[in-house]
Amino acid sequence: MNAPLRASLKFDVQGLVRAIAHNHSVDSFTPALTPAQWELLGTYMQPFAVMQGQVLIEQNAHDRTLYLIESGGLTVHYEDSKGRLRLALVGPGSAVGEGAFFTRLPRSATVQAASPSKVWCLTPIRFTELTNRQPALALEIAMALGSLVSRRLANRPKRVAVT
């Protein structure tokens, strides 16, 4: 899943913070966090590079990892008996994987990198640790994800992008 990182590729949670601050779309992930909370959250997440064409989430998989997009773009595809149907393009400052993160159901779609991307993942185990150690921070993340899901469900084209 993880692509080898080039020596020049650096990760700093501030890149994710900037991407979120610049995303003013209906598809933005917008937790109200202080700089110190962002730094703390960064210690619970794993950053990695995704190469163009690489699959991040497979439809029907039983994985609950949440992904926050720092740069690049991800496409969401639903696969039926006739092939693939592109549902959405998700960009920096947004998230994918929130549906299974909350519901514990299999993934509803496949997510693939449309371009080289930098993403941060938050696994259910790390979120549980965050919840136990920093409940206010975990609550803010959950509320921001709930807001994102609600906005996607209210927006017909984005509704099917809840993965």
Taken as a percent bin, the fraction of beta residues is 25-35%
Unreliable stretches (pLDDT < 50, length at least 5) are 1-7
The best one-word shape is globular
Class inferred from helices and paired strands: alpha+beta
Relative helix content: 25-40%
Distance between the termini: 17 Å
Main sheet: strand order: 1-8-3-6
Q: How is the biggest beta sheet arranged?
A: 4 strands, antiparallel
By CATH, the topology is: Jelly Rolls
What is the name of the CATH architecture?
A: Sandwich
Total of DSSP H or I helical runs spanning 4+ residues: 6
The name of the CATH superfamily reads Jelly Rolls
Q: Compute the average pLDDT.
A: 90
Radius of gyration: 15 Å
CATH class: Mainly Beta
Number of domains: 1
Number of strands: 8
Secondary-structure element pattern, one letter each: HHEEEEEEHEEHHH
Features:
163 residues, alpha+beta, Jelly Rolls, 8 strands, globular, disordered N terminus
Written overview of the protein:
It contains six helices and eight strands. By secondary structure, it is of the alpha+beta class. Strand 4 (74-80) and strand 5 (83-90) form a beta hairpin. Helix 4 crosses helix 5 (135-154). The longest helix is centred in the C-terminal third of the chain and has 20 residues, at 135-154. The relative contact order is 0.23.
